Amino acid sequence: MLYISIQFRNIELKNRWVMSPMCMYSCENGVANDFHFVHYGSRAQGGTGLIMVEATGVEPRGRITNHCMGIWNDEQAEALKKIVDFVHTRSESKIGIQLAHAGRKGSTWNNLQIPVEEGWETVAPSPVPYHPSERIPHVLSIEEIREQVQNFKEAAKRAIKAGFDVIEIHGAHGYLIHQFLSPLSNIRTDEYGGSFENRIRFLLEIVKAVNEELDENTALFVRISGTEYADNGWNIHDSVELAKILKEHAVDLVDVSSGGNIHGAKISVFNGYQVPFSSQIRRETGVKTGAVGLITKVEQAEDILQKGEADLIFVAREILRNPYIAVQGSFEMKENCFFPHQYTRAKISS
Ligand SMILES: Cc1cc2nc3c(=O)[nH]c(=O)nc-3n(C[C@H](O)[C@H](O)[C@H](O)COP(=O)(O)O)c2cc1C
């Protein structure tokens, strides 16, 4: 199934391999450069069905570090367009972008918070830092929450102008949207906190605002943490309920990761450790899902699809090691996959 195409709105992916979004911390002022051109371009040469550009800040405070990617201005969008155009003209891959806001996990370097003078005052739903040693984040007022929704909408508009095929909203890993979802990081008492309905409101408002910008030529994915591995925290049942609602709101795929919101949470990591969350969400809601997390082998990826545990396979570290995993898999499985015509002589090993 890895090489059976799949459609999201009018976007057809030639195969089920996705380059998972990965921060490269290599921008100045949020602008993509030659490194990113080669980095993403080589995964297009490698036949990857969908390339997801790393977490990209919808405003300066939405970045994790000073060197993260941004899409809050036209210069940033123009730099990304160069990559998108290459992917569209030189490969059969599609390309998406992950729109993100780091919230209380911003203003860091090497996973440590940096001083306000070198970074910025972080924002969050509640005055609860990620780690007790960190600064208390600024609590977003209702008006500021609306501004954040607008930031995602404007970012989506720029992404469409740059030609992206897919927009993924980053609702996972303890970043701003996840901070709203979890009762452990969101202790608000207004309409954005308390009940499940209130905690998911921020994400749903973003989904609605972004969808207003999209037509059938751009698909919408949402990445969530299936669980945050904490008592009384966000869990897989919440994720199933959320996925049902996202499906009703025209979200095309839920990309299922886990963790990231609770410092020191115990996570048992093994091959395909997050696949069961994707599987449960897919089974219980009928929404299309993406599986991610220690998927490193072609057979393993094929098996996940065959068992109906996911519709797409997101690969992060393995595709850094092997940008050609999609092509390599097609050779192993004797399937068709894009391969640069310049490389045709390498199709047969003898
Ligand atoms: C260098 C690096 C940067 C990452 N940056 C992001 C990111 O920008 N957005 C995101 O949702 N996940 C990010 N992740 C998580 C990956 O997308 C993926 O979910 C995780 O690494 C598990 O997949 P793997 O076992 O295939 O590496 C990052 C992972 C790595 C290794």
From TrEMBL:
Pfam families per record: Oxidored_FMN
PANTHER family, per database record: NADPH DEHYDROGENASE C23G7.10C-RELATED (PTHR43303)
A molecular-function term among this protein's GO annotations: FMN binding
Residue intervals of the NADH:flavin oxidoreductase/NADH oxidase N-terminal domain: 4-326
Lineage, uppermost ranks: Bacteria, Pseudomonadati, Bacteroidota, Flavobacteriia, Flavobacteriales
This protein's UniProt keywords: Flavoprotein, FMN, NADP, Oxidoreductase
Domain of life assignment: Bacteria
UniProt protein name: Oxidoreductase
Organism: Chryseobacterium angstadtii
Keyword Flavoprotein among UniProt keywords: yes
Signal sequence segment: none
